[in-house]
Design brief:
By secondary structure, this protein is mainly alpha-helical. The protein has helices at 9-19, 41-44, 68-72, 97-104, 109-115, 119-131, 144-148, 165-180, 191-195, 210-221, 264-275, 278-288, 295-302, 317-325, 336-351, 357-371, and strands at residues 32-36, 91-96, 137-139, 156-157, 160-161, 183-186, 205-209, 239-242, 253-257. The strands form four sheets. It has a three-stranded antiparallel beta sheet with strand order 7-2-8. A hairpin with a 2-residue loop joins strand 4 (156-157) and strand 5 (160-161). It is globular, with a radius of gyration of 21 Å.
Length: 377
């Protein structure tokens, strides 16, 4: 059975199971579980997670080549490391090569990156794309992480909801893009959004990290799902990756060892293999295009002859190196996922002129306070 992340469904089911950990037979206990950056802190500073160093025996030497932020997120208030990940998730702009040529006269990543090098330039290209019959973005949520990951203050300060200026900037841009027809009025994760990735799609590009390329865009680009992933099958191969107007990161999945597991040795092996073994890190990146959590492996691939066929044989790893070392997650809270979901949902009627901005904010606060009754406005 698969439980979705939306509306905290996965967290709720996980919480129920963790609370029964001491009551169920050994074979029914949770051994490992996964958390995402948007709510990782909810589990880090608790007794539900084991210390991977002191409890499982993974050494500091084993994790010395990981990106620092991936450990910072999972370190509790006492300095104990409570989970590891195989991913680092710097983001960029994934654009359609043929549309870039039509709009800008070039599809070269350096040139396209320069053309959209700040938000004013991005707006200028959006206008040109509109004039050529294309959408700069698929919909409302596409640029959200490029703004929210640049917040300088957290969503919650002292149990009070706080709105960073970057959130208002995203709302202003999205309202403008919707009004001017710069986006296709699609919501992220919907069929309308992924249709823009196909052969008949009219979307210039999408914001995302490496995992978004392989797990979302590559499958959606195919006309024939059962045929080989190769140029000529849909829009596969007609894409490229470049630097975005502002640096950002998005996502990541961490593996946690559950307190009470009766398979600690096996859990240690899984954590080491998936998150520490440099050969595995290299193979994951080469085979799937993911950006993995090993500085040496990623540097080696970036300087190699690696080619990603979905991206027209581009070596996109090199574009991630600088931003991966600069990711800062010091402002994250355990409420980030709920805040993002409720905000995006509340603003859609405003973007479509169905309600006022004040009404959208009221809807947001109502939804968030129902989800997190311990908070206040």
């Amino acid at each position: 059975m698969i439980t979705p992340s939306q509306d905290s469904a996965y967290q709720n089911k996980l919480d129920e199971a963790l609370l029964r950990q001491d009551e169920v037979p050994a074979d029914e206990k949770i051994d490992i579980f996964l958390v995402e950056s948007d709510y990782a802190l909810k589990y880090v500073d608790t007794d539900f997670t084991l210390d991977v160093i002191n409890d499982l025996g993974i050494s500091r030497e084993d994790i010395k080549d990981q990106y620092k932020y991936t450990q910072d997120i999972m370190t509790d208030s006492k300095g104990h490391l409570k989970g590891l990940t195989w991913q680092a998730c710097p983001g960029g702009f994934i654009y359609r090569r043929s549309i870039a040529k039509a709009v800008l006269g070039t599809d070269e990543p350096e040139a396209v990156g320069a053309a959209i090098g700040n938000w004013q330039k991005f707006d200028d290209v959006a206008l040109k794309a509109k004039e050529k019959g294309y959408f700069m973005l698929s919909g409302y949520d596409d640029a959200f992480r490029a703004f929210s990951d640049n917040m300088t203050t957290p969503w919650v300060i002292g149990n009070k909801i706080h709105i960073d200026p970057q959130i208002n900037a995203w709302i202003e841009q999205t309202k403008k893009y919707t009004a001017l027809g710069y986006n296709n009025k699609a919501s992220l994760w919907t069929a309308e959004s992924t249709q823009g990735m196909g052969a008949k799609g009219k979307v210039f590009g999408y914001f995302g990290p490496a995992w978004f390329i392989d797990f979302v865009m590559a499958p959606a680009s195919l006309d024939k799902q059962n045929a080989p992933r190769e140029p000529g099958n849909g829009s596969y191969g007609d894409w490229a990756f470049c630097k975005e107007p502002v640096g950002f990161s998005w996502g990541g999945t961490w593996i946690c060892a559950a307190k009470g597991t009766d398979n600690a040795d096996l859990v240690k092996d899984i954590l080491y293999t998936l998150a520490c073994d440099p050969d595995v890190m290299t193979n994951i990146a080469v085979n799937s295009g993911d950006f993995t959590n090993n500085i040496n492996s990623m540097t080696t691939i970036a300087n190699s002859y690696y080619k990603n066929p979905f991206l027209g044989n581009q070596n996109h790893i090199k574009f991630f190196l600088d931003s991966a070392t600069s990711i800062d997650k010091s402002n994250i809270t355990q409420y980030d996922l709920g805040m993002a979901e409720k905000l995006q949902a509340a603003m859609k009627d405003y973007f479509n002129d169905k309600i006022t901005l004040d009404q959208a904010w009221e809807n947001f606060y109502t939804a968030v306070l129902e989800l997190y009754p311990n908070l206040s406005r």
